[in-house]
Amino acid sequence: MKFRIFDKQEKKYVDNNNVVLKSDGLLYRVIVRGVIEFLELDPDRYVVEFSTGLKDKNGVEIFEGDIVNHFYGRKFVVELRSFIHEDMECGYSENSLEIIGNIHGDENGKD
Asked: At 92, is the secondary structure helix, strand, or coil?
């Protein structure tokens, strides 16, 4: 699953190219120094937000924590479990949603 990582201390999204989310639910930075090492990242500092697999009407990928506006005027915070359920129940489509921010105050998940 695709995910993004928000650093609560630095108050920005971080590059997750060298980060893995292991089956224990924790994030690890991958360090290669002759051998591969995994450095556990502080779970209280970093927030993992998963992709919904959908894009909004502007082609921007929708993640957990995004604030979206439905064309009927309803604004809501995307939570993966409830979003998928509501998407199926209410018939939301990619063309009916627009990301207007996220819970961290960053526009579209950008720094």
From this structure: coil
Distance in angstroms (rounded) separating the CA atoms of residues 73 and 61 = 20
pLDDT above 60: residue 86: no
Q: How far apart are CA 77 and CA 62, in angstroms?
A: 11
User: Token pair 């957990």 is at which residue?
Assistant: 64
Residue with tokens 């920005």: 12
Distance CA 9, CA 51 (A): 22
Structure tokens at 32: 């290669």
pLDDT at 92 over 60: no
Phi, psi dihedral angles at 104 (to 5 degrees): -95, 0
Structure pTM?
Answer: 0.76
Question: Average pLDDT in the 62-72 region?
Answer: 87
8: which 2 tokens?
């609560």
List, in order, residues 6 or more apart from 55 with CB less than 8 Å away.
61, 62, 94
